[in-house]
Amino acid sequence: MDRFLSSAVNRIDAKGRVSVPAHFRAVVQKRGYGDLYALRALDVPALDVGGLDLLDRYEQRISLEDPFLQAADDMSFFIHGDGAFLKFDQDGRITVTDFIREHTGITTDVAFVGRGTFFQMWEPSRLEEYGAQVRQRLLRLRQAASARSLGEGTE
Amino acid sequence: MDRFLSSAVNRIDAKGRVSVPAHFRAVVQKRGYGDLYALRALDVPALDVGGLDLLDRYEQRISLEDPFLQAADDMSFFIHGDGAFLKFDQDGRITVTDFIREHTGITTDVAFVGRGTFFQMWEPSRLEEYGAQVRQRLLRLRQAASARSLGEGTE
DNA sequence: TGGGGATATATGGGCGTCAACGGGAATAAC
DNA sequence: GTTATTCCCGTTGACGCCCATATATCCCCA
């Protein structure tokens, strides 16, 4: 398996370290990532974590912009300057920095969530809340869709 | 790693020196920069720091302007006449000059921000404020894009 | 089927190394 | 002489390396 799937919650120890789930570590190795790179998710209190190829995608996107306009500068600032390296110790743990705590609200436990080509780090209770919201939205979407397909002029 | 990534805040000591983050120093060496060259960023209170190839980027910018207009002349003056060399001591520190303090508002601490091919020096609280603005703009960009892709006649 | 290891994972903690930082003294500049 | 810069050394705290332990899972074999 070479994709980040499923989720797990691990505890932060007294030194501020937390184990990355073994399954995720296997994916990291298979993909040949040395260090991990973490970016802030823009609309949720979570971090997007992956290899440096996470940046390739963004840099490709930036190259489409006029390099002297604000948009390009913002994008570069965000991915190059507003990220952080996560270094494994040899037991597969990373240290939870202030950068991580600030953006996510993480204090004692970390929820790791697979997202295919990358994974996310969440404060567990916030993740749960967010999950409920997502399910709610999907349910409404589905209901709206079936309402539309029944009576075409319902709205 | 050959790009300036992530950020760090270091303190200025009583002699006016500040350590350049070790990771950045490694990049500097890998890129073969002897001394560093610092330019005022055009629209933010920060310094752009890198090798002399930094000038290439700005000269390219200037070449886009009409040479008969004042803008091109202003930019050239700004860049060629208003830069400064930053010399490392043998512990990897640079001295914070009045030039740096004036343009950035730096007093006791320096935030180093990776920007890929160069890095920036900021006054930490100003950086934080600017980062929040950038994320806000990027979020709006993203939301505008998804609104467009959902309902085509929403606007 | 059930017991008893062997293995893997998460977690805790000791300890050495290195980067950041502070300061003394030599050297250069004015 | 005075000031500023450069070199060198010591301190400190964070982080990486290493080892130990507890728990769960799997596998083999009786």
Give the secondary structure arrangement, pairings included.
2 copies of one chain form a homodimer.
Chain A: E1 7-11, E2 17-19, H1 22-30, E3 36-40, E4 47-50, H2 53-62, H3 70-81, E5 84-86, E6 93-95, H4 98-104, E7 109-114, E8 119-122, H5 124-150
Antiparallel strand pairs in A: 1-7, 2-6, 3-4, 3-5, 4-8, 7-8
Helix pairs in contact in A: 2-3
Chain A binds a DNA duplex (30 and 30 nucleotides) through loops.
What does this protein structure show overall?
2 copies of one chain form a homodimer. In chain A, the strands form 2 sheets. A 6-stranded antiparallel sheet of chain A has the order 1-7-8-4-3-5. Chain A has helices at residues 22-30, 53-62, 70-81, 98-104, 124-150; strands spanning 7-11, 17-19, 36-40, 47-50, 84-86, 93-95, 109-114, 119-122. The model of chain A has no long low-confidence stretch (mean pLDDT 93). Chain A has 155 residues and is α+β, with helices and mostly antiparallel strands. The first copy, chain A, has one domain (7-123): 3-Layer(aba) Sandwich (Chemotaxis protein chec). The longest helix of chain A has 27 residues, at 124-150. Chain A is globular. Helix content of chain A is 42%, strand content 21%. In chain A, helix 2 (53-62) runs antiparallel to helix 3. At the A-B interface, helix 3 of A face helix 5 of B. Chain A binds a DNA duplex (30 and 30 nucleotides) through residues 10-11, 13-15, 17, 19, 21-22, 87, 89-93, 95.
